[in-house]
Amino acid sequence: MKLNKPTEEELKQMDAKLTPGYAKFFVKEAKFKISKIGNEQIELKLSITDVLQVNKTLWVYLVNHPQMMWKIKHFCEQAGLTKEFETGELEDYMCLNKEGICILKLEKQKDKEERIVVNDFAQTDTKIEKFDDEIPF
Question: Is the pTM of this model over 0.85?
Answer without folding.
Answer: no
